[in-house]
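Why do we care about 3D structure at all? Because function follows from shape, and shape follows, mostly, from sequence. That is the central idea of this module. The next example makes it concrete: a single protein chain, its amino acid sequence, and then its structure expressed as tokens.
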Amino acid sequence: MANDASQADAEAQTKMRKEVQRRLREMQVEQEKKAMVKKLMTSDAYERLMNVRVANYELYAQLLDLLIAMARGNRITGQISEPQLRDLLSRLTFKPEPKIEFKHK
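And the structure:
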């Protein structure tokens, strides 16, 4: 019985250790991405990006991945300004308005 409990504890510790390591890797990748993007942006644009991060993390992650892909594809010349970032945000969040048609009899 005691052996089963200690084995369960060891498995739980191993599982927890793996989870902590995974989270640390995720945080490290996040920091690397932020550092890369910070170099590509003006301070105002970076501040807006961090505001998006707080307000909508999924949108932030999408935008971060887009910016990194653009940088790797050499599609970014110079630094990204806040208006350019707002334009990218509007493109990512654009949803066409549904068209409502009325049919008269």
